[in-house]
Design goal:
Order of helices and strands: HHHHHHH
Largest sheet: none
Number of domains: 1
Helix content: over 70%
Shape: globular
Number of helices: 7
Length: about 200
């Protein structure tokens, strides 16, 4: 069901836009294959199935829109969970989130675009952390453009260079997933080292 190639063939151009929108900022969209979906869509565009310019403009628009929806949902609904201390939701967590986004939020929004799961929750956390929307939208736009253009262009270029690129889709997807998860593993190792010291 979540194979990017099957998804693209099933849902078409409009479906790609909606998946990018959902994965960029809707709470339930974290399991969707954004990175590999963009890459495979780029390969399909190289074969004339999609217009690459329509694909780039549409994906950028829906990636930015998805993040904005995530931001406002975090700002409007997320903070309610932290008004009183409970088992999982504590006021101090909201304060820590605000401080984190005040210090690192701008760059986090760009980096998060390239990290699965984190990409979905970063804008929600930015809204929860009460990040200034003007700053948020600037880095949201930068991150959205870099993410969409880099992955679609890579797929488009490789699709044009390699004969029968559909034969290599699975290994390429696995490589993209592995590269996307590198920042998560790197941060995990750093935290483990800090704990041991």
């Amino acid at each position: 069901m979540f194979d990017p190639e099957i998804l693209i063939k099933t849902v078409g151009l409009v479906g790609i836009f909606l998946i990018i929108f959902a994965e960029s900022g809707l709470f339930f969209g974290f399991f969707l294959p954004g990175d590999s979906l963009l890459f495979i869509a780029g390969i399909f565009a190289s074969q004339g199935i999609f217009n690459i310019y329509v694909l780039i403009i549409g994906c950028i628009f829906f990636a930015i829109l998805g993040d904005s929806v995530g931001y406002f949902s975090g700002k409007k609904f997320g903070r309610r969970f932290f008004q009183t201390d409970g088992r999982f939701f504590k006021k101090k967590y909201m304060t820590q989130t605000e401080q984190f986004y005040e210090k690192h939020g701008k760059y986090t929004l760009i980096i998060a675009r390239f990290v699965p799961i984190v990409r979905t929750f970063a804008p929600i956390a930015a809204g929860l952390g009460n990040m200034n929307y003007k700053s948020f939208i600037i880095y949201n736009v930068i991150g959205g453009i870099l993410w969409v253009v880099s992955l679609l262009s890579l797929g488009y270029l490789l699709g044009g260079l390699i004969a029968n690129p559909d034969k290599y889709i699975l290994p390429i997807i696995l490589i993209i997933i592995a590269i996307s998860l590198l920042p998560v593993f790197s941060k995990g190792l750093q935290l483990m080292r800090n704990k041991s010291n």
